[in-house]
Amino acid sequence: MRHFIFVFALLFMSAPALADRASDCRRQCGDDAACYRGCMGYSYRPSYYGYPSGGGGHPHAYRRAPSSLSAPRTAPQANAPKAEPPTIAPRAEQPTIAPRAEPQAPKAQRPAASRSSDRSAAARPSILGTAYDFLYAPGAETAGYGLYSYVIVPRPSDRAVAFLRELVGRFPAASDVAEAKQRINVLYIPTKAGARGQAAFPADVESAAIKTFLDKNYDFALAQRLLFHLCDKPAPAVAQLCENDLSGGPYILTYATKISDLSPLPPPFLFVDLTNVRPRAFPLFVAAYAAQVKRPEFSDGARLADFHLQLANIVLTAADWVQPVSAAVADIAHFAEAKKSDGEAPK
């Protein structure tokens, strides 16, 4: 009993010193178990199962678990090179996969006639101007002009003289024009075959010279034939006109090809009737006509409406009209439109 009390007292007295030593060893060795056991004076021999087992009467020493699962930290060395951050390889770009093309429904095909009309309209160059020439026989027109127009006067008159003088004074002769024919609206004057080689008129031609030409060389029979072509199975636009007396005039008939040997005359065409316009207003109407045929697709219905507007906007006095203005404008320009591809009747 006395020995037990002595041992207990000895352990009680040495406990503070042992605790201080353990603290010193932990500060010195950190998580190094072998260093800690050597510092405390323990011996170590691992057992078969990996648990520490003591020997020689020494108490067992258990390795304290590290504070984290990472590797033990080591004290930083002086002037040690700073570790470079790991280089992250660039992410490989994924190949772009083009979306699969969806089959598309075939587009509706337009009628062949409509497509052909569009191609011919797109291929036809615009008209740059008008020039006159003499027509000596049916079908004798020169090929290749952009538009073909015809000066029709049914009979000799002062009105016919004034009109023809306005035309040849305003427009050059075709022989004097260097521009390509497809850019020209040719204005044919029916002329007797016996007058073949008729000289061009000077720009300041006198009315007397025009009157002589009309009396001797103008071919009224050929002019009347052109009117017959117009009224042979006439288009609705000129049907009523053809029922009336065509001895007035003067007239201008404009078409995309030569028509002196063509009958009946299929649309589209433009027919200008100046029967109800007095001679002193001829220059204004001729100027409006010349501007109209220079516009692309002159025979388009919307452009004809614009032509009507130009005529209505011409500043004229009441004396320039045979009939009231409202009636006369409606009777001047007659447009026969080609039949629509969808079967719509021509205007």
3D architecture notes:
There is one protein chain. With 347 residues, the chain is α/β, with parallel strands linked by helices. The chain folds into two domains: 11-47; 123-336, no CATH class. 36% of the residues lie in helices and 11% in strands. The protein has helices spanning 2-29, 33-40, 112-123, 158-170, 207-216, 220-231, 236-243, 282-294, 301-313, 325-332; strands at residues 45-46, 52-53, 129-135, 147-152, 184-190, 251-255, 269-273, 333-336. A six-stranded mixed sheet has the order 3-5-4-6-7-8, with helices on both faces.
Helical residue percent? 25-40%
Please trace the helix and strand order, writing H or E for each element: HHEEHEEHEHHHEEHHHE
SSE class? alpha/beta
Percent strand: 5-15%
In DSSP terms (H or I, runs of 4 or more residues), the helix count works out at 10
- Spatial order of strands in the largest sheet: 3-5-4-6-7-8
Number of domains: 2
The largest β sheet comes out as:
6 strands, mixed
- Poorly predicted ranges: 43-72, 102-121, 315-319, 325-329, 340-347
Calculate Rg over CA atoms.
56 Å
- Principal-axes shape call: rod-shaped
* Distance, first to last CA: 142 Å
Number of strands: 8
Chain-averaged pLDDT: 71
